[in-house]
Amino acid sequence: INTGKPIHVVFSDVDGTLAHYPALVQEYSKKGKKLLKLPPSSTGMCGVLSLETLSLCSQIRRMPVTNNENHDSFLEAPKSVQSVNANKKSNAAGKTVKFVIISGMRTRTLLQRIPFLPSADAYCCEGGGRIFYQIPVGKPKNGETTSIIDDSGEEADVENKTMGTALPEIYESRNEEGAVQGHFRLQEDMEWRKIMGHVSAAGPDGYDGIVDIQKRDGLLWSFARKLVKMGWVIDYSGYGTCFRVHRGKQLHKAKQSKEIFDVELPNLKPAGLACSTNLGCVDFYPDRSGKKNW
């Protein structure tokens, strides 16, 4: 990729970009690619991700932020800097390309998949409605709770006024060879959550994923209730800032038609909401959340 401009961030979807489904599994296997099987999603789909993909994503995160007009490949640093940019700390400028995963998956699916996905600087799920960052932690010892490590390498307070509290689960970060190189927790961006939790967006009531939509405030859930009254079957379980409409789960066959499902349904959304297609489904979310089919 020769843009002639510095690349600071690479955004990637998961399904269809990093992970693929049965139709392509046999093709990949025939090519001798080593595959990693992901845990089933909430809809029962089970994708695979190649070890080569993990390696390439790891390379992206080691790339220095620099003008890449002389690079033959964005994924390969110039030979003159490869030796001094083996990791982030060796980069003289201290800046490497950030890798961000953005997906329509619900939060609980993301948390299940973290150990299998490429290591990322940020994870955006529910169509971009929720954002989590990697927070390095000390190595777990005998099940003890570990402290967050700040940029200086010192232990930092787990509580943070801007970010909130880090989730308790500890994950392993791995290098491109698959070896464990550190541990981290996920911490939600609470400033972003405040924006998404406004009544003009998704409202504040759905973040635990179990509150009935009849009791959820916010533009998103007002629209969801409207669709239900119109006879649409929606999936909101586990979602706080997004909901999904599955073509195959509609009780009325007419609603599964291309004309109604692909055209009329998306056009029902009010101003302030956006939608995108995802594996035979339509996801709805606040238009400020950022994810969109381009």
TrEMBL record:
Name of the protein described by the UniProt record: Sucrose phosphatase-like domain-containing protein
